[in-house]
Design a protein that fits this description.
Blueprint lengths: L1 E7 L4 H10 L8 E7 L4 E7 L2 H10 L6 E7 L14 E2 L5 E9 L2 H10 L10 H11 L4 H9 L4 E9 L4 E7 L4 E4 L4 E4 L11 E4 L4 E6 L2 E6 L10 E2 L4 H5 L6 H7 L1 H9 L3 E2 L4 E2 L12 E6 L1 H18 L3 E5 H4 L10 E7 L5 H12 L3 E6 L5 H5 L2 E4 L12 H21 L4 H12 L1 H8 L2 H14 L4 E6 L4 H15 L2 E6 L16 E5 L6 H12 L4 E7 L11 E5 L7 H19 L18
Parallel strand pairs: 17-18, 17-19, 19-20, 20-21, 22-23, 22-24, 24-25, 25-26
Antiparallel strand pairs: 1-4, 1-10, 2-3, 2-4, 5-6, 6-7, 7-8, 8-12, 9-10, 9-11, 11-14, 12-13, 15-16
Helix pairs in contact: 3-4, 4-5, 8-13, 8-15, 9-13, 9-17, 13-14, 13-19, 15-19, 16-19, 17-19
């Protein structure tokens, strides 16, 4: 995944591709490459590291041609190096492609291709598609791409060309893709900023669309070849707005990117057809008998959900520590301890030092991390990447839900491998978890977002908030309070709902908004009992309820509904209204949500 650019027209393709990729550098990446053709041959150049490495190489030895494709890669399958960089080609170099997303069934497809004599150069899932297209190709590139995608499961924005054709074929499912319409020239990109220097006329490619670009213009079809009409939109964003995808802030954009981020975290690891979880790790699931989770801030609350999931599903005892305290409390660590570091950046100094403390005591270490190539990934024994993509907003949103999803994967995998979950239960939870991208997309529907905005505007003048939750959604309350504090500067406290009567109940009066996570769970009745205690003292209850819960509506002054789902995956869905409540409260107060005062994205000093 990360940045895609394509061009066909009368101009120098190399200059346009490099310029376009430079406008996507804000998305983060670890390598870059381009392929350029003239209709008779095609040449590829790619380099690990920054785009400047590729640009310098091309300055010394330029590629000539007037159509081509380019890519900046954020590594998923295979380490960041020249070979794993995109574009990928077939053995003879005739077919070239770039790909964002994840091919879920790539191993199965790769094994079949190897048996049929194909030779692979890279470790990536993307290269598999190039060989599938090669097998299907009989002179019609469009049909070959269509036939290959019929065999593929997963998420993709795929852009393909062939040395014998002045055309570019692209298709999208889940991963974003936009087409630019110029005067006698056509463009493709994964995001609008790459194209604004050349055209303001854009067509946003939808899931299941295939687009064919040529010197004559473009055609759009579905994956079965039937014509599709898409509206050409005029984009009037400035450069900064373009990087935000038309959203008002990076945080808002990243909230709405969560269905894609969750797809990246889960796809390729959850197999509904087999009812199992597959993690690309050398970790021995029976090599430890206790777990220490070490993290800071939002990552700590992701780890708190992880503790619930690991203990309930894998039946492993878990200790959870704030990283800044862990190394100084002299934790009891043995060679039967698995220490898990949770960090978006992989650079958080307190967490890194905590892992060093655990390693010194003989523990194995595992990182739940978003950023590849970070300090933690170089020091830890094992890494479970969350693949959320770059997160620019200081207040974490998509990284949080992706880290929680990674813990869900780990807990399911350990339950499966250690035998604490039956095959039937694993299959059921795998099926439930695969629905997460769709459920989160539903939670972000216009109607639900408007509902949260209305609540935020109603209470934006409150000086204090209380957040309550129970069980696996106790951490959701803590994360909700943290988000509100971070970006609106309103004081907020979070408590386990059953703990309220042991102190916080003294705070409740008719000025205090109390947000209660009361979605479907085995503790719902107890949670509603706690709500009654709040109401009896005049507290203004904002209830988070599951769709269809009409019985408990009367217990809240305001109600926010979320899609109904299994309790074990509900913290991910329930995080969405918490993020939106914080966002709209801060926005109503006129705060800069992307740059909250006194905060930094990555804390690299103690």
């Amino acid at each position: 995944m990360c940045g895609i650019v394509g061009y066909i027209g009368p101009k120098d393709a190399q200059e346009i591709l490099i310029s376009g990729l430079s406008k996507l550098e804000y998305r983060g990446y670890d390598s870059a490459g381009i392929a350029i053709g003239d209709g008779a041959c095609i040449a590829t150049r790619k380099k690990a590291g920054k785009l400047a490495n590729l640009a310098e190489d091309l300055e010394r030895a330029p590629l000539s041609g007037s159509f081509g494709i380019g890519h900046t890669r954020w590594a998923t399958h295979g380490p960041p190096n020249d070979t794993n960089s995109h574009p990928h080609t077939t053995e003879n170099g005739d077919i070239v492609l770039v790909h964002n997303g994840i091919i879920e069934n790539y191993l199965e497809l790769k094994h079949g291709l190897l048996e049929r004599g194909h030779e692979f150069k890279s470790d990536t899932d993307s290269e598999v598609v190039a060989h599938l297209i090669e097998e299907a190709y009989t002179g019609d590139l469009e049909e070959a791409v269509r036939a290959s995608l019929a065999q593929v499961r997963g998420a993709y924005a795929l852009v393909v060309t062939h040395k014998d054709h002045r055309e570019i074929v692209a298709a999208r499912t889940v991963s974003p893709l936009v087409m630019g319409v110029g005067e006698g020239e056509m463009f493709l990109a994964s995001d609008v900023p790459a194209l604004l220097n050349y055209t303001r006329q854009m067509v946003f490619i939808q899931d299941g669309d295939m687009v064919i670009l040529s010197d004559d213009g473009y055609r759009i079809t579905d994956l079965q070849g039937q014509p599709v009409q898409r509206e050409v939109e005029t984009i009037d964003w400035d450069a900064e707005a373009a990087e935000k995808g038309g959203y008002d802030s990076y945080m808002q954009k990243e909230i709405f990117e969560q269905p894609q981020a969750l797809s990246n975290t889960l796809l390729g690891r959850l197999h509904d057809d087999q009812g199992n979880v597959e993690l690309d790790t050398q970790l021995d699931p029976n090599s430890f008998d206790r777990i220490h989770i070490v993290a800071c801030g939002t990552a700590y609350y992701a780890g708190m959900v992880g503790k619930y999931l690991l203990e309930q599903l894998a039946r492993v005892p878990v200790e959870l520590d704030v990283a800044s305290e862990y190394r100084y409390r002299q934790p009891v660590v043995t060679d039967r301890t698995l220490a898990i570091a949770v960090s978006q950046s992989g650079e958080t100094i307190d967490t890194l030092e905590g892992m060093r403390e655990a390693k010194a005591g003989g523990a194995q270490t595992l990182g739940v991390i978003n950023a590849k190539g970070s300090s933690m990934t170089r020091e830890l024994d094992h890494t479970l990447y969350v693949h959320a993509g770059p997160e620019i907003g200081v207040a974490s949103t998509k990284a949080y839900t992706s880290m929680v999803s990674a813990f869900l994967l780990l807990a399911l995998w350990l339950g499966q491998e250690r035998g604490t979950l039956s095959k039937e239960e694993v299959a059921r939870l795998v099926h439930e978890a695969r629905a997460l991208p769709r459920l989160v997309a539903e939670a972000l529907s216009d109607e639900r977002v408007a509902q949260v905005r209305e609540v935020a505007q109603k209470y934006h003048q409150a000086r204090d908030y209380l957040f309550l939750g129970r069980g696996v959604n106790n951490p959701t309350a803590y994360e909700g309070a943290l988000k509100l504090k971070e970006i609106s500067y309103i004081h907020a406290e979070a408590y386990a709902a059953g703990e309220m009567k042991h102190g916080p109940i003294a705070l409740i009066d008719d000025h205090l908004p109390v947000v209660v996570v009361a979605t479907e769970s085995r503790l719902l009745e107890k949670t509603i009992s706690n709500v009654q205690e709040v109401r009896a003292r005049g507290g203004r209850v904002i209830l988070i309820l599951s769709d269809g819960d009409t019985e408990n509506v009367q217990n809240g002054e305001d109600v926010i509904y979320v899609p109904r789902c299994d309790e074990m995956i509900s913290p991910i869905v329930n995080a969405i209204p918490m993020q939106l409540l914080a966002y709209f409260t801060a926005d109503t107060l006129g705060k800069d949500v992307d740059k909250p005062r006194n905060l930094a994205k990555s804390v690299t000093v103690e």
